[in-house]
Every structure is written in C-alpha cells, then in structure tokens.
Amino acid sequence: DSSDDIEDVSLFDADDDASRRSKKSKIRHPVASFFHLFFRVSAIVVYLLCELLTSSFIACMVTIILLLSCDFWAVKNVTGRLMVGLRWWNQVDDDGRSHWVFEARKVSAQGSKTSSEAESRIFWLGLITCPMIWVIFAFSALFSFKVKWLAVVVMGVVLQGANLYGYIRCKVGSRKNLTSMATNYLGKQFLRQVRFPGFWKPS
C-alpha cells in the first residue's frame, strides 16, 4: 500500500554467530511460553466443545472472543518480546499516514539476552498453526451453512492472522527492504558480468 510507511528499528543488528552460540534448548520464560499457547488453544477447544458443554450460543461466542482478544494482546505485547525478542505495532500520524514499526532485541556480547531455540520453536509453531486451524474452521462453517458461527471464526482468523502477519514482517523485514536487496544483488551480478564477460560461460 502506497499510504504505508515502513520503519525498521534494529531489525537486522543481531550478530548471527553470537546467536548461534547462545542457542539453548532451555525454556527461559515458562510463564510466557504457557500463555502463548493457553489462550489460543483454549479458544479452539471451546469452539470444538461448546455445543456439547452448553446450549447458549451467546455464552460460547463471548468466551471465544474474550480468549482471542487476550491471546492477541498477550502475543503482540508480551510473549513475542520475551520469547523471540520481536515486537511490532502500527501507528497513524497526524497526516493520517500509517506507519509499521518493527523492533528486534539486540544480541549482547555474552549472548545472555538471546532467545532460546526451544522458545523460538514454541512461539512460531503456535503462531503459524492456530491461524491455519481457524481458516479450516472458516471453510467448515461456510460449507456446512453454520452462519451464526461464521462471525466467530472470522474473528479468530483476523486476530490471530494479524499477529502472524505482523511478526512475519517483523522477522523478514519490509517488502521495500527485500526489493532493494534483490535489486542490489541483480545489479552486482550485472556489473560482474560486464567486467568479466567470460565469467558465466562454461569452460
């Protein structure tokens, strides 16, 4: 979107070698890891079992939406920062322009603040798997004509999909950065071919 400005804050400042040396299987934030999965898994379980537990659609809908909202807030503001050292948000300035802001935790010299490999796997597994499950629920509700549940399922897709989208952009960088990297790479390859015309020819 041309109305969006992208701002990266310390996204690619981490030292790859230091992060490799500091990777451990130890879970350093067990409470954050628990709540990273608790709210989103609970919402899925309530959706699957609500018709067996109660006949009140309103109670099920409110419970699921509350769990999804708690999950969105916790993942966006707490678990992402603690488990993988990433944080994102979107802000609108006085001119009405939308700014995406991405943050990444810098690796210390001792590597003491880097995320563990186990926490990273838990974070990304939960972040990617649960929105896919809600997409499956959406198609199931649509094809089975459960119109009243469609709004709840769409809410799950939107809230968990928003976090997935934000963290993916936070992890890999903006499209502008990727485009400039590809352009620079192709430009270097073109200049190399111009300087050494026989470089690409088979010997």
From TrEMBL:
Work out whether the entry's keyword set contains Transmembrane helix: yes
Parts of the chain that traverse the membrane = 30-49, 55-75, 122-143, 149-168
Question: Which is a GO BP term held by this UniProt record?
Answer: protein secretion
A GO CC term attached to the entry = Golgi membrane
Q: Which gene encodes it?
A: Tvp23b
Q: What is this protein called?
A: Golgi apparatus membrane protein TVP23 homolog
Decide whether keyword DNA-binding is in the record.
no
Report the Pfam families cross-referenced here. DUF846
The entry assigns this protein to a family as follows: Belongs to the TVP23 family.
Ordered alphabetically, the record's keywords are: Membrane, Transmembrane, Transmembrane helix
Membrane topology is: Multi-pass membrane protein
From what superkingdom does this record's organism come?
Answer: Eukaryota
Where is it predominantly found?
A: membrane
UniProt subcellular location: Membrane
